[in-house]
């Protein structure tokens, strides 16, 4: 009896936890809007670091959690019809590296929703043949998303190196193609081994004998250009030294 | 259980664009432009999980855009193709595409360039108007 009650209690607690985590996730998105409506200087979409300093502790400021989902495809109604909408600087990689993985995950969805909203606005502006207010917001969001990607990739790379010693996530190897060029071949997943794959066997990963002279020629071209570059550098340095000889510096010291 | 585990994407790169329908759609239908690689199931999961919008049905089609236009070098320029999704909302919800560019009275701040320009234009328009005492009769008529 007591065991049944205890199990039911734990189930209820788990449900509460799930509800809380969901609501906290949504609250972080709405926290930005709550802040923007609260601020006297009509600054919406301030994606500086203040937006995530205290995401969970603003329940007193919060208006309501439940909003129609499709309203998030549009800006705040106060900004409809404005010529410019103020927005903050994009997130830098340095600011993003400080955040935890859960925060970055939530921030990715914030960026995603913002980008969807901006794309909707852009398309509607094209439809109505009017200029889009503040199109630089799109670039800011794209750059922030790219930097977030970079930070997550860095973390995954370091984890993988520490745990397994693998440098790349996807296995591959250096191979030579039919034209004599060496390239990094990335492996794909197949349900059958390579010797049963007729299409793979038609693909040649070796250089036929008649292609070897052309490989040699391209190698010679590459070496020639490298040597020419080095010689050019040396020539430049020599002419600079002729223009500004070292003994004048020493003479001026004395 | 056969096969690989279900594909889960942690940080989706798909962007959805809500568009105003070109043709009249039923009140519960919302029109989106989605990337070509997305499927109906992807759209349903996306809207339900990220936007918590109840979805009843999704229909998609691919819009082919022209490769006929040419640029100043007479090269053919392709307008990118896109996929359109018609999403029907569940629970008898309706959606009307709002007017995002309403007319607003521009109140420029004192002493700004735009305010001076507006004043100048207003003065010009006033000068161009004919004398109201003539009652709409043109200038070249009469003395």
Automatic annotation (TrEMBL), chain A:
Record key words, sorted: Mitochondrion, Ribonucleoprotein, Ribosomal protein
UniProt keyword Transferase present: no
Signal peptide feature range: none
Annotated GO MF terms: structural constituent of ribosome
Disordered as annotated region, ranges: 230-254
Keyword Mitochondrion among record annotations: yes
GO cellular component: mitochondrial large ribosomal subunit
Any Gene Ontology biological process: mitochondrial translation
Entry's localization field: Mitochondrion
A Pfam family it matches: MRP-L47
Family in the record: Belongs to the universal ribosomal protein uL29 family.
Protein name, per record: Large ribosomal subunit protein uL29m
TrEMBL record, chain B:
Annotated GO MF terms: structural constituent of ribosome
Span list, region Disordered: 100-143
Coiled coil: none
GO BP of this protein: mitochondrial translation
InterPro entries in the cross-refs: Nucleotide-bd_a/b_plait_sf, Ribosomal_uL23-like, Ribosomal_uL23/eL15/eS24_sf
Subcellular location: Mitochondrion
Compositionally biased tracts (Basic and acidic residues): 101-136
Transferase keyword on record: no
Record keywords: Mitochondrion, Ribonucleoprotein, Ribosomal protein
Primary location group: mitochondrion
Transmembrane domains' residue ranges: none
UniProt keyword annotation of Ribonucleoprotein present: yes
Similarity-based family: Belongs to the universal ribosomal protein uL23 family.
The protein, known as: Large ribosomal subunit protein uL23m
Native source species: Cyprinus carpio carpio
